[in-house]
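Working notes for the structural subgroup meeting. M.R. asked for a predicted model of this chain before we commit to crystallization trials. I am recording the input and output together here so anyone reviewing the notebook later can reproduce the run.

Input as submitted:
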Amino acid sequence: MLPRTHAGGGESDIVYKYLATKNYPSHDLLIECTLSQSTGQRHMEMEPVSRHLATYMIKENKNAYCSFVSNELHPMVISDFRGRKAMPFYLTDNEYVESMKILMLDTEDLRNILQKDLRYSDIYKIFDEAFCDTSLDAPPQWYKLMIKEKIANYQPMEIYSDLAMAAERNE
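Returned structure, recorded in token form:
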């Protein structure tokens, strides 16, 4: 389940377009995957991922966010992407976004999402709560508490019937 290649220059690896449901607003999700690790990840991914999302928000849909996926997440990358919530990103003097929502996952998180059969509405809720969190935890600790542990400890709600779960999957 590891990425094998990368997208063309200047583009996100995957883009999903979601219509509004009772669980989330209309939005687009950009997924950026990397095989880079350690300081290489910091050098190769921090600026391009932010630039891809900012460009997409300006040219396509301001209601977009990004999920960055890697085998392991470098603490500086977590810190930079978390900081984008409160830091403008400029493409030019006149083209910029005030804030960006970039959330991260490692491949262990992906494995847990698949094994636990999380629905997108559950993932969106975890990501939205993490993004809106105002704690002053160090970004690597914030990621561990707000994303990693919530995914690892996810328990499906027992009130969902098979029919309700199937209907939600078709949203």
